[in-house]
Structures are given as structure tokens and as C-alpha cells.
Amino acid sequence: MTIRHETAPMPASPLRLAEVAARAGVSESTVSRVLRNIGPIAEATRVAVLKAAEELGYVPNRLAGALASTGSALVGVVVPSLDNIVFAEVLRGVTERLEEAGLQAVIGVTGYDLAREERIVSALLAWRPRGLVIAGIDHTPRLRDLLAANGTAVVEMMDIDGAEPALDRRVGLSHGAAGAAMAAHLLARGYRRFGYVGHDISRDIRARKRLDGFAAELARRGVALVAEEMVAGPSSVAAGRRGLATLLAAHRDLDAVYFSNDDMAVGGYFHCEANGLRMPDDLAIAGFNGLDIGQELPRRLTTVRSPRYRIGQLAAEQILTRQGAAEAAAKPATIDVGFELIAGETA
Amino acid sequence: MTIRHETAPMPASPLRLAEVAARAGVSESTVSRVLRNIGPIAEATRVAVLKAAEELGYVPNRLAGALASTGSALVGVVVPSLDNIVFAEVLRGVTERLEEAGLQAVIGVTGYDLAREERIVSALLAWRPRGLVIAGIDHTPRLRDLLAANGTAVVEMMDIDGAEPALDRRVGLSHGAAGAAMAAHLLARGYRRFGYVGHDISRDIRARKRLDGFAAELARRGVALVAEEMVAGPSSVAAGRRGLATLLAAHRDLDAVYFSNDDMAVGGYFHCEANGLRMPDDLAIAGFNGLDIGQELPRRLTTVRSPRYRIGQLAAEQILTRQGAAEAAAKPATIDVGFELIAGETA
DNA sequence: ATAATGGATGACAGCGCTTGCATAGATGCT
DNA sequence: AGCATCTATGCAAGCGCTGTCATCCATTAT
């Protein structure tokens, strides 16, 4: 039996513009203007209003504000996963840039499921967001229609390879080209018997694009991709380790293995280390993403760095700078941030 | 000069309840009820309304809905960082659980800055969220006041050690106890000359609590913490590696080193590996978090696993189940999810 | 038959803010 | 002094929903 009176729960914030206005002795509109810094305001009034708001601990109701002004300072961000540091970094780029502009991110995680993406985007749209940032460029037709009919600013990020036209704007890199670049690098180093270890590629479309680019480049140079090992489930160090073990059990003669990403490649690295395989002499290892962990291994991982944080920032920026549809049509729709091949010590 | 007519930008979603109502031949209230599944509705009406909404591609305006009904289906989530997989996992737990319940997360990243936390929470409150989930239990006095006066459901997560009373509910573990547990484990293994390598501990309060718990347990057993090396900046594999190198340069006689977390510890691991130090014989290494990467190293890292995903889920759940303030006062305010010491092969 | 019951729906007043328009002093200009 | 200009502020009409209350048929009970 605790007696609560001083700390009694207040009737959930009965604090409105009107209260502040009353206390400052001005009208609601004036308070509204002061708080949003618009229109000419006498200095004395401004001070009085700010003081009243401060003393009352007034927090404006943005729901009402957004409804009244159409435009919600909310930006929907849709990523496929948060198991992996990759999207967390993208998210960081997005939120930081948005915060500078006073906007906030509402997030949705699809689990690489396009049907779920559709539902999530729809739910996000219900907040009438200023814009939408979505990882990936592959969507269900229904989602495309929804977005097209809706007119919301949308930025597709991470990826720029695709036959489908951009929904609106894109910020990313060509995963096909990244795969091809790695193939070219490995070929230049003299490797000829290639293997691949990946995770569930039917869901991770960008990983597939890298593999396709990789294989295509090999083919172009008349070299075959000898073997592929796909591990079920999401990418992880453990999966990469197991995958390489399986792959090598069936194909002892490989001289280089490309992994779907760095997590997987680090797993491969550990497998080699644990089994006395020297890299790159006994086996070359390459990944994708350029994660820190790969670069801190005793032997730096050969990989391709994707500018994730920057992609997030740029994506947010696209939302911020997007004005009318007219201007949108004028600007280039796609920003290719490129990538950087890191020639490490494992390949 | 592009002529756009077919694809002309629509007047941003002029689609309201009224349009759907008109098309279905019923009133707005009926549409509202059908869409929210409340009240008795004739089956024929339901079908007609759903059909009209579907055909029109109607997406309800939740801003308006929330404003009218007070209760916004938005939950603010505040984390200190997204550099690290740890909070990404927490976030995943939160968003997944919220999504099941039809709620959405608006996120804020503080960068371990309490002043910024205050601003972010204030901005989040402006959306009149159903609840707030905040990592950490240390806040500015002003933030405490704001939240207390506001009556919003809030869950502090990750940490449960602290003199300050809980804002509302807590879900986490005792970092002090985790540090102490590791000290006990290492002492039991016979180590006696301890070192510590940490990152910017003035900001990462939980890392400090672990260190304090660790040092206290050593002291209780009459053992000293010989040396501490603090690396500036956030935790990272690189920082851990550098930190250990520095520490050992000054103190060659240590037999065990405790790291502020697993990222740092993995860096230490690589340092040992690169310098021919055998673990645990030449040097024992221990971390905190129980990250996958640590468990996939050739020698499994000795660490303490924190149930991050579960913390996120539970935190979301607290928001979902929280009813009135009365009931809130009745339930236990703190959930201790505990932790698990993983006796790996490095200590 | 007629009243009572309940299922199905519509009307309408807000929710808390923004914003165009009106108003009222205070200045400036001729 | 008289009128145009500003600057500073208030008024009031919504923004697109929700929720209460009233209404209107069908049924069923009497």
C-alpha cells in the first residue's frame, strides 16, 4: 500500500498550446509561431512565450501539427535485417542525417521477405511520412503501384542494378560490378579454380547479384566457377566456416573461394586457420563489405568495401532535398556511390 | 522539358475515409469501424467497404487516427549507438515484438550523450508515443522530471544497477554482477595478475559498472587490478588490439586481461595470435556480450552472454502489457534477465 | 397487433495544431 | 495631417480521423 499523491500520475499531458498561450498572455497562433520560428514576432513576446513553455514543460503534439500542416517530420526506413552490422550502419547514417534536420526515423525490418516489405511500407505510409528509405530495389508489383500512386518521396538504397525503373531515387552501388571486380582481381592474382560459399541467396538478392557478376566475369575470361556451397539461413561466421568445410570436402583442388559477404568469409578464414591452410597460398579467401573485423584479422581480408554509412547519409539527404515532383524529375535519379576493392592478405 | 501527364504527380494522396465511404455507399463512421474491426457490421457492408478500400488503394491516415483517439501506435526507442551489433540486436527484438502488435518504432541514437538523450526523448514525446524504451538507467535530472510529469510508459533496458529509482519499468541485467562473476571465474582458474583494457568508459556507463564490479570482486578477494588501459573513442576490434599492445608493453607480467566488451577482447585475441602469445597459458583473455564472432574464433572466447534480443523483446512487451498507472504500480518494476558466463578457451 | 429489444448505421463534435485573412497600432512619406 | 506600409497579433476554419449518441429497421415477445 503505497500512498502516492505528489507523484500521482497526471492526466496524460493535458498540456496544450492553449495552456502556454494563456500563461504567456497571447493567442495560440502566436505561441505556435514562436515555437516554430516563423513570421515576425516582437522580442518581448518571444521571450514570454518561450518562458511559459519552458516553465510548463510543454512538448508540442506533433501528431496534431503534422495533421494540420500535412507533412510529418517522420521518415520511414525499411531494412531487411538487423542481425548484421551492415544495416545497422546504414541506419546510423540515416538517423544521424535526419536528426540534424529535425526529422525522425520510423523503422521496419522485413527479414528479406518482400511480402512483409509490402505490409511494412503500407503501415509506414499511414504516418504520411516525409519520405521513405528502402533497402533494395526489388519489390512486389503491388508495392510499386502503391508507391507510384502515392507520391511520397522514396529512396531505394544499397543497390542500383536492375531492369525495373527506379521508384524515385536511388543511392547505392552495383553489386554485379562488385562481384565482377573481385573476379577480375582474383584472376589477376593467378587463381583459376574457384569456389563460392554463400548463404540463403534466394532472399538476399544483392548477394546473388554479386555472385552473378562474379560468375559472369569468370565466364567472360573463360574460367569456370567450379563449385558452390549454399548454407541455409542467414549469413554468419559459423555458416561461413561450415560452408567452407563442406565445400572443401567435396573439392580439394580449389585455389580461391569467394564468399557472399565478410561474415561468411571470416568464418572461412577461421576454418583455414583451424585446419592449417595457409592463406592465400593454400587457399585464397575473399568477401564483401569491408567490415572492420576482416581488416583486423592477423591477415587482412581481401574484400570490397561498401560505403554503408555514407549510403545511409545520402539516402536521408535525398529525402531532405527533395522538393516538388518537378524538380525531382530534373535531378539525376540515381547516385552510384561506388565501392573499393581492398586487396588484403588473404587473396 | 518533359511532358508528364499520365505519370503526373497526384495531389499527395487525396484519399480519405470519405472517398472510400462514397464508393462503398456508406458513411465514414462505418468505414472506420470496418477497417478497425469494431462494432457490429453487416457482412455485406464489410465486404463492400473492404473492396472499395482495396480498389482505391486506401491507406488510413494514422496521424489523424491517433490524434482523434489519443494513442499513437508509435513507440520511441532510444539507444546509445548503432556501431555495434549489440544495440542492433536489441532493436531487432523490440521491432519484431512491436510489429506483431501492430506498433512501430521511432528510433533515436544518443551517441552515449545524456544531453542529447534528453533532446531526443523530448522530440520522441512529441509523437505522443504509446511508450518509450530507453537503453540505460542513467539520465539527466531534467529528463527524469519530464518523463515523470508526462505519464508515458517507459522501459529502461539493459541495466538494472543504480541508486536512482526506476522511471517506470526496467528490463536488463546487473553489469556490476557480470563483472564480478568474471572476476570470480578468473580467480577460480588461478589467475592473479590482472589487467583491464577498455574504451571510453566515461560515456559507456555500463562498461564502467562491469569494471567496477570486476575490480570490487578482486579487491574482496585481496587481489589487485594491476593495470588499466583506456583507449579513446568507441569500442572496436582495432582499439582492443592496440589497447592490449600498450598495456602489455608496460606490464609484461600480467596473466589475465579483462576487456570492456567482446569487440575489444577479439582485438586482444588477435594481438595475442599475431604475437605468438598462447591463450590462456601465456595470457588469459575475457570479454563481455557473448557475440557470435567470439564463439567462432579458433579458441572460443571466455565471456559473459547478455540476452540482448530477449531484452529487446521483453522491453517491447512491457509497453504492450502496461495498462493503467494503477496496475503499473502493482507489478514488479524490474525484470532481471540475468546473464550467462561462457567459459571459453581463452581463460 | 404492438411494444420491446437489439443489430446496423449515420451525424457530428471534437483531437491539438497550422495558416490564410483580418485587424490594429506604429511608422514613414508627401 | 493623411494615407500607404509595415510589423505584430488574433480569429477561425480546417487537417482526417474517432467515438458518442441518436436513429432506424428487423425481430421477437406479449
UniProtKB/TrEMBL annotation, chains A, B:
InterPro entries: HTH_LacI, LacI/GalR-like_sensor, Lambda_DNA-bd_dom_sf, Peripla_BP_I. The lineage of its organism: Bacteria, Pseudomonadati, Pseudomonadota, Alphaproteobacteria, Hyphomicrobiales. Keywords: DNA-binding, Transcription, Transcription regulation. Residues 15-69 form the HTH lacI-type domain. PROSITE patterns: HTH_LACI_1, HTH_LACI_2. This is Transcriptional regulator, LacI family. Pfam families: LacI, Peripla_BP_3. It comes from Chelatococcus sambhunathii.
